[in-house]
Amino acid sequence: MKIDSLPKLFGCIITCSMVIMACSTNNVTVDNGLKKYFDEYKVKGSFGLYDNGTGQFTIYNLSRFKDSAYLPASTFKIVNALVGLETGKLTNEKMEIVWDGVIRKYPNGDTATAWNKNLTAAEAFKVSAIPYFQELARRIGKENMQHWLDSIKYGSRIIKTRVDTFWLDNTLQISADEEMGLVKKLYFNQLPFQKRSQDIVKKMMVQEDNANYKLSYKTGWGFLQNGNALGWVVGWIEENRHPYFFVLNVEADHTTNLSAIRVDLLKEILKQEDFFLGKR
Question: What are the backbone dihedrals phi and psi of residue 174, each rounded to the nearest 5 degrees, phi first?
Fold first, then answer.
């Protein structure tokens, strides 16, 4: 279904993403047919896909995508790493932080074996190790972190609680279209960080790289104030050196294990959109 007027969405994405092609009344397609994938996994949420070459958006659940904000959870590791690199608190992706010996668990209650050891930044980013990035945030400090949140206009920009928890406890909130703006700017080195910092983070985001496509993303998993589980996958897929940016947001009962669901759901949607074949 085509829609005629999306001033808030267009305004936000143009401002955040610096979309080069002019927006028109025909460059957003609302695809409610994607609901079947959310229903399959018994979750609700939204999805957005932006074709950088054509300027075309495909969006499911438009109101949630553009009007609702949520804790960023571990998608904030993108910004945390960028700020760490820019301030020198993170030297590079190989910098190791020694495990403090505290046994931690994943949100579903399983022992976080992938977190409970010494990790480099790249390793911690890949397994989404909260303790590593909490320590990095403490080293950065609240004042520096606030400066960069304001500089990139990240979500609500609020740090009311501790500097090592504000992206996890619903203090800081961000919408799906703002997440898309961030990853698009990152891809094109348009954020106010050094190119080196952005290149290192982009390298850490790569999840799959083969002859047909290159898939880069960061996941997030947290809990809303109502107790529900919230999941994110934000990033891009490249085929024939052409980038497509996506943001998936899912919400479910607090007992739902979103770890696998969010990525499986993303891939099913991308497969429907004819990705993974190297023909886009």
Answer: -145, 150
| Contact assessment for residue 161 and residue 104, using Cβ atoms and an 8 Å cutoff | no
Alpha-carbon distance of 71 to 169, in angstroms, equals 7
Q: In angstroms, rounded to a whole number, what is the distance separating the alpha carbons of residues 168 and 220?
A: 10
What separation in angstroms does the CA of 178 have from each of 16, 37, 72, 113, 234?
7, 23, 11, 32, 11
| Residue pLDDT, tens place only, 156-178 | 999 998 999 999 999 999 999 99
Tokens of 167: 């992206």
Three-class SS state of 102: coil
Could you tell me how far CA 186 lies from the centroid of its own chain?
11
Q: Which of 228, 188, 174 is nearest to 65 (CA)?
A: 174
> Catalytic residues, which ones?
74
What's the CA gap between 208 and 64, in Å, rounded?
A: 28
Fold of 7-272: Beta-lactamase (3.40.710)
Residue type, 50: Y
DSSP state of 257: -
- This prediction has a pTM of 0.91
